[in-house]
Amino acid sequence: MRDSRPVESQSALRWTTWGRAGRALRASGWWYFSLLPLTSLVGEADGVDIGRLLAGVAVAALCLAYAYGFNGIADRGMDRDAGKNALAGLVELPREAAVLVGACAAGALLIAAALSPVALVATGVSLVAATLYSARLRLKRLPIVGTLVNMLIFAPLPFVGARHLPSPEMLVLAYCFCVLVTQNQLLHEIADRHEDASGGVRTTAVVVGAAGLRAIAVLLGPVAALLLWRMPAAPLTALAATLGLSAGAAMIALGDMERAAQWRVAHRWYSLGIGALLFALVARGAA
Predict the structure, then answer these.
(1) How far apart are CA 166 and CA 41, in angstroms?
(2) CA atoms 64, 84, 151, 228: torsion sign
(3) Cα(208)–Cα(228) distance, rounded to whole angstroms?
(4) What is the chain's Cα-based Rg?
(5) What are 29-48's pLDDT values in tens digits?
(6) Distance, CA of 136 to CA of 132 (rounded, Å)
(7) Which tens digits make up the pLDDT trace of 88-143?
(8) Average pLDDT of the residues of the chain
(9) What's the rounded Cα separation, in Å, for the pair 105 and 35?
């Protein structure tokens, strides 16, 4: 009787490799960002298209899977924590990881092309920013520049479900989101500053230090909130956004930076709550 154990072992190894590739996409770190296309529910004069919204969410999810997965591939030699990066420490890139990450980018572009020119442009900007952030140029290693390019990965996502150019209400929500995601990126850079420095990556946090980032956070929240009052937002929405953005800044400025990773998780949930509140206010005002 033929021994099937080698075949079974190869099959098990293949499934294990695909599982590692799937974990490298780190869906737990971005699933809530994939809901951003729901902002197109406000300000759409032609009514709500559920199919378009779901397709937009799928595009956002694929863009984020590509961004996180590609970053995991690029940083696998620098990262040491397998809990953070499933590919950490691997010298040879698993083919399955490359195929999966590439398929995410291709799928995002195909779906976006079927939605609208606005969705396709927004998707392209996000994918290009994700590539430049982590690829050979590694813009993430440049202080300030890396932080801004990281924001460009996320900033277009509210528009991938839009049928037309963004409405003023959508711009208000997208603006607040950009501020919140930048705050969260600052916490991320603080948490990873030692690992980044050892890998030759000079993020904003590495250059200015935790104290410098506290100062940036203190300025970022209130200044961003003041600018918001010049945008087309109802007074109640502007007030809620002002308090929300300023409180997010205070979370960074007053937090224990040695526990920045924990603060980052807390800030994620805080941002989700603030985003939901602002969405409800803007949708009510636009109704």
Answers:
(1) 11
(2) positive
(3) 27
(4) 20
(5) 889 889 888 887 776 656 66
(6) 8
(7) 767 777 788 889 999 999 999 999 999 999 999 999 999 999 999 988 777 877 88
(8) 81
(9) 18
User: In the block, which residue shows the tokens 């927004």?
Assistant: 122
Instruction: Give the span between the Cα atoms of 188 and 190, in whole angstroms.
Output: 5
Q: Look up residue 176 and give its amino acid.
A: C
pLDDT above 90 covers what percent of the chain?
20
Residues found in the chain: 287
- Amino acid identity of residue 206, one-letter, is V
DSSP string, 109-174: HHHHHHH-HHHHHHHHHHHHHHHHHHSTT-GGGSTTHHHHHHHHHHTTGGGTT-SSSPPHHHHHHH
Long-range residue pairs from 231-237, CB within 8 A, at least 24 positions apart, any chain: 231/168, 231/171, 231/172, 231/175, 232/168, 232/169, 232/171, 232/172, 233/172, 233/282, 234/281, 234/282, 234/285, 236/281, 236/285, 237/172, 237/278, 237/281, 237/282, 237/285
pLDDT at residue 126, as a whole number? 96
Closest CA to 244 of 231, 225, 228, 258: 225
